[in-house]
Amino acid sequence: MPITDYLVRNAREFGDEVALIELNPEQKETRRVSWKEYSLIQQTEDQPYRREITWRVFDEKANRVANMLLERGVKRNDKVAILMMNCLEWLPIYMGILKSGAIAVPFNFRYSADEILYCAELAEVDVLLFGPEFIGRIEQIVDKLQQNRLLIFVGETCPTFAESYREMVADCSSIAPDIEVKDSDDGAIYFSSGTTGFPKAILHKHLSLMTAATVEQHHHNTQHDDCFLCIPPLYHTGAKMHWMGSLVSGSRAVLLKGTKPSYIFDAVSREKCTIVWLLVPWAQDILDSLDSGDLKISDYELDQWRLMHIGAQPVPPSLIRRWMAYFPNHQYDTNYGLSESIGPGCVHLGVENTHKVGAIGVPGYGWQCKIVDDNGNEVKKGEAGELCVKGDGVMTCYYRNPEATAEVLKDGWLYTGDVAMQDEDGFIFLVDRKKDVIVSGGENLYPVQIEDYLRKHDKIKDVAVIGLPDPRLGEIAGAIISIKDGMTCTEEEINEFCQGLPRYKRPRKIIFDDVPRNPTGKIEKPVLRKRYSVEGLVGKENEL
User: Fold this and answer.
1) Where are the domains of the chain?
2) CA 216 to centroid of chain Cα atoms
3) What CATH architecture applies to the domain 437-532?
4) What is the per-residue pLDDT across 242-293, written as a single tens digit (0 to 9) for each?
5) Whole-angstrom Cα distance, residue 157 to residue 155?
6) What's the pTM value of the predicted model, to 2 decimals?
7) pLDDT, tens digit, 9 for 90 and up, residues 388-427
8) What's CA 7's distance to the chain center, in Å?
9) Backbone angles phi, psi at 394, to 5 degrees
10) Which fold has domain 55-206?
11) Beta bridge partners of 467
């Protein structure tokens, strides 16, 4: 069954209960604002801007979106893109697209104008819904976008080159359209991170979406009385697929705008959140704020918070040990996944396996995994190889790119491009991205291992290790290091600390700088390679 059936069920069984809450701590609201179909809460000076929507209104809103699209000529398998920041409208629009039989195509909100146009053309987008933050970027390419595409503005003051979402849905029926959606139908196109150039379009069927929802609810035992705090961008499979556990259980979710530690604690406290998904930098910021005394647990009501889970990147074991010292009663979990495997959950640690912190886990609910060598043969436990996954959440293809599809889809297995190993107990450890492996003097260096070691230094806030060109060794390991606020550190201190590493693994160049991360928390290593792999910068390496 399609995930939209859960929305229909929730509207029927939990219609008057709150489904979604939007919180914006950086915006204050002191008056009641009437928005058609949304119930708002009276605000006071010390409260964040807050909106909420019930399950019944959520479903009605999705129906209006579906009917609006159908009235404008959208047909089954047409592509409808969403370019919006997280807000209360995002998920009803997404579900409405699915109800219409069209294919939902979320866009990364960091896309430049050129990338927006590229992805719109690659995915053959027929309709683009966009928010006010993107007017400037759309204006740069509007002449090309308007060719055979409908542009719909979701916001207060509609630009002249688009049509108003509010006006378009105002008179549309709130009754579900008579459109049958099956598991075998195409449901969504997501985009790769674009770390090797422009993004690839990833096509998923409705079965994939249902798989993500089922896996998430199963892994984290999301119940009707839970409340999920969602902070990452909804365009990404990670945030949305974790929210789908709330969809299955008919439970509340909070969309928080802002990542400051105080914002997160305040949202958990005010809204009685029980499940929080964090990215590594946000968890690190919370721990640093607790260490410094800027954030105090006693100032908030956090007893109901039962689960903290992290994904989207390797998680330093030292971070989790610090977390459990502050929150000994928390369940902890980590999830591994790719947009090609419909987001998180194809590999899953499990709340019962905190003794294996450092591993990404075991095959997720309904998933299979194997680790293979360059010839596709499974390696022995303890040996490194490429991680492959198989399940109902694997993508159909890279849309309009059969060559790239053939490289990663083989006999139903998705070749992830990640190097991993499995221990004697069957737990999988992520070693590194295959393309990020540094070959230095014939030795394979895995940046994640070096990064995990460096993060143990009490002055290091964040670190990224990349390969830098070297005339003798081919490549050397360079460490870009971000120091904690208020602290100073020298290259000599880092070199001394690295004496604990085998000689060949020690970084030969130390660079103190910020570590760039994308909206899902992943280190943007292509940015660092471009920044530092220039002639003259790498000529002086550290003699270790």
Assistant:
1) 55-206, 437-532
2) 14
3) 2-Layer Sandwich (3.30)
4) 999 999 999 999 999 999 999 999 999 999 999 999 988 789 899 999 999 9
5) 6
6) 0.83
7) 999 999 999 999 999 999 999 999 999 998 889 999 999 9
8) 22
9) -70, 140
10) Rossmann fold (3.40.50)
11) 477
